[in-house]
Amino acid sequence: xxxxxxxxxxxxxxxxxxxxxxxxxxxxxxxxxxxxxxxxxxxxxxxxxxxxxxxxxxxxxxxxxxxxxxxxxxxxxxxxxxxxxxxxxxxxxxxxxxxxxxxxxxxxxxxxxxxxxxxxxxxxxxxxxxxxxxxxxxxxxxxxxxxxxxxxxxxxxxxxxxxxxxxxxxxxxxxxxxxxxxxxxxxxxxxxxxxxxxxxxxxxxxxxxxxxxxxxxxxxxxxxxxxxxxxxxxxxxxxxxxxxxxxxxxxxxxxxxxxxxxxxxxxxxxxxxxxxxxxxxxxxxxxxxxxxxxxxxxxxxxxxxxxxxxxxxxxxxxxxxxxxxxxxxxxxxxxxxxxxxxxxxxxxxx
Length: 350
What we know:
13 strands; alpha+beta; 4-stranded antiparallel beta sheet; Rossmann fold; 33% helix
């Protein structure tokens, strides 16, 4: 256990604007999307933000935490004078652009400041979905077949067949993903890919749709990393005809039936299957050079095959979220989880 530390909880204030995101259209230009997380469920009170919960946990651990709001150039340059022993990095964007969390981490590296979570490389691969898939495939981790659409017409190729799911090639928080993302015909596919390119200004990732269950593998630590108990986002009660995906309706649209009937819970799988899921998560974590903590999203097909569909460095860190739920099942309180993230981050710099 480290001694008493001054810890700056670094965040970007534009990520507080959850209300705007909840009411956003189906596809929103990325720079206008300033929130990436759904409101926690099963509560009528206003929950504490991640930074407030982390701050409370650090105080309970005996550290001297303080909030540092990253709001623009002045506060960014001010990091050079920040008296922190460690930065607890909760930034998901910079000036409202969620692709620039990579640059915040790179700037911290230039300043030779110690910070929690993945570095620029891992954060970039969390954004670049196609490159991440190529890397994990190279390392022997299964992921759905795909093609990248960068304008005009394109063909699926021999490894893909309908239905496919069309989603942004970059970004996070299910931006650009909704019930219309799963398509069954060529014209639908071309229209959806064009919409993503026009509105989000990035290529479209056209991926084989895997019908099945959605599993989350939380990974904690570095040497070695540990897979936490598996969590399932139960999509079985979605309205008839709606694809079983974690799209906008499930994550953001609190007024919809889809949001109301989906829940995340610890899942009890056959131990052999659970072990394969954990190994797939760990394989992706290592291949993408993620560090400290991350969440790997999997699809479990009816034939028992597991597919990595997304990697999330620095996942949402609130007590209500899936990562904390998995840690709690493993015997870690939220405060202990925050403390362990601090410890594994510090160990990298020792």
